[in-house]
């Protein structure tokens, strides 16, 4: 799929159907169903951005549930990014329209946006089942008991959504922030990758690690955490961590009194080396799950978090590995990379280096070095 700005299409033609949006003229709905909303429409939809309509808050601002005049339920993200790091009004709308043209079953649909003075809003389809962070890893009251089939479908869906961004969109998009809270689920538990393309638009002027990733460093590929080197393989690493979370129901880092701080990537590597991979599978899954497939999924997770970026598979390969269209039996798996000294990272400063994989590296690879996927 070619990714190009449809700015001119959306704002120039059919003046009789154009609507004035505070200086922006847009067709109410273009071919892509993209809407430039007025502030008053969004205010009405969210009961004046009331606290009771607020459904979450992230690095870019607060998210509100809204009901549009036509009965559509939406999620409205009120961006709270400093204006200097924001694009100009028209450029912003143009970029957002371009992103809204990305259509895939496993991407959240960006329905529209709104510009009101210094305020900017994004409008998405509302996802009934919230995010993986809530239903898989959240508190008891939010959790959904996910069986193996559901986990398989979610893992594959996320992998396909990412493969689309990486390999079908031109120029390709590196997500940069793959993590459980950015995987939303619709009413049928179909996973939808959210926030794709946003960091590029909103964080251009910010150093590669901003304070907002403090809670999510465990998803960061070591080379990105250290030097800011961003490639598609950075996302593959984060996907690998996410995949291990989906299989195990455990978060990236766990604390327990016996072992102290333990990283999921480390646990998975230990389980692999000691031939006890199945112990990693979330007990909630029960006994009746395809063991061979579970082992394969963990191995794919480990391949995705290999320390050397070029040894990680491209996302389309990861998909085919998960579906067993590429046989990974006999593929060499080496120690994963791991940013395991989170406290030592001075956020936003490229001069301070976290230690990489020191715990994992003390464990020897059970097999000889690897074949390359790149
Ligand atoms: N389209 C949506 N439908 C339903 N809930 C949503 C939607 N978008 C966001 N949310 C909810 O709002 C929360 C905050 O989202 P947001 O993307 O702002 O922050 P985040 O994903 O937690 O962190 P980050 O800013 O790093 O992406 C999400 O965790 C989710 O619970
Ligand atoms: Mg998000």
- Number of individual domains: 2
Mean pLDDT: 82
- Helix-strand makeup class: alpha+beta
Total count of strands: 12
Q: Roughly what fraction of the amino acids lie in strands?
A: 15-25%
Amino-to-carboxy terminus distance: 22 Å
The largest sheet, given as strand count, sense and whether it forms a barrel, is: 6 strands, mixed
Molecular shape: globular
User: Element order, helices and strands?
Assistant: HEEEHEEEHEEHHEEHHHEEHHHH
Bound small-molecule species? adenosine-5'-triphosphate, magnesium ion
Helix count?
12
Q: How much helix is in the residues? A: 25-40%
Read across the widest sheet, the strand sequence of neighbours is 3-7-8-6-5-4
Low-confidence stretches are: 4-31, 204-208, 345-374
The CATH class of the largest domain, by name, is Mainly Alpha
């Amino acid at each position: 799929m070619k990714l190009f700005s449809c700015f001119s299409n959306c704002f120039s033609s059919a003046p009789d159907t154009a609507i004035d949006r505070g200086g922006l003229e847009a067709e109410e709905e273009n071919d892509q169903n993209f809407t430039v909303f007025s502030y008053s429409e969004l205010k009405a939809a969210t009961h004046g951005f009331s606290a009771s309509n607020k459904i979450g808050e992230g690095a870019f601002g607060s998210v509100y549930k809204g009901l549009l005049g036509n009965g559509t339920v939406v999620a409205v993200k009120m961006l709270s990014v400093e204006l200097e790091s924001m694009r100009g009004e028209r450029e912003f709308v143009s970029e957002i329209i371009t992103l809204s043209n990305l259509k895939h079953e496993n991407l959240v649909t960006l329905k529209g946006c709104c510009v009101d003075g210094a305020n900017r809003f994004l409008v998405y389809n509302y996802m009934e089942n919230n995010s993986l962070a809530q239903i898989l890893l959240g508190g008891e009251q939010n959790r959904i008991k996910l069986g193996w089939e559901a986990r398989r479908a979610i893992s594959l869906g996320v992998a396909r959504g990412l493969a689309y961004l990486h390999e079908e969109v031109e120029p390709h998009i590196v997500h940069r922030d793959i993590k459980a809270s950015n995987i939303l689920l619709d009413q049928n538990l179909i996973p939808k990758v959210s926030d794709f393309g946003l960091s590029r638009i909103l964080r251009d002027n910010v150093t590669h690690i901003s304070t907002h990733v403090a809670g999510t460093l465990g998803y960061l590929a070591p080379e990105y955490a250290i030097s800011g080197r961003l490639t598609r393989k950075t996302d593959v690493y984060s996907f690998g961590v996410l995949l291990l979370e989906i299989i195990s129901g455990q978060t990236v880092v766990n604390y327990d009194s016996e072992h102290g701080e333990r990283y999921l990537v480390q646990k998975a590597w230990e389980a692999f080396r000691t031939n006890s991979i199945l112990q990693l599978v979330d007990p909630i899954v029960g006994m009746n799950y395809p063991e061979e497939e579970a082992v394969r999924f963990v191995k794919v997770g480990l391949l995705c978090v290999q320390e050397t970026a070029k040894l990680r598979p491209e996302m389309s390969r990861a998909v085919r590995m998960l579906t067993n269209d590429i046989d990974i039996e006999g593929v060499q798996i080496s120690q994963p990379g791991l940013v395991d000294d989170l406290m030592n990272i001075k956020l936003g400063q490229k001069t301070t280096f976290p230690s990489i994989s020191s715990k994992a590296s003390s464990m020897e690879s059970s097999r000889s070095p690897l074949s390359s996927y790149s």
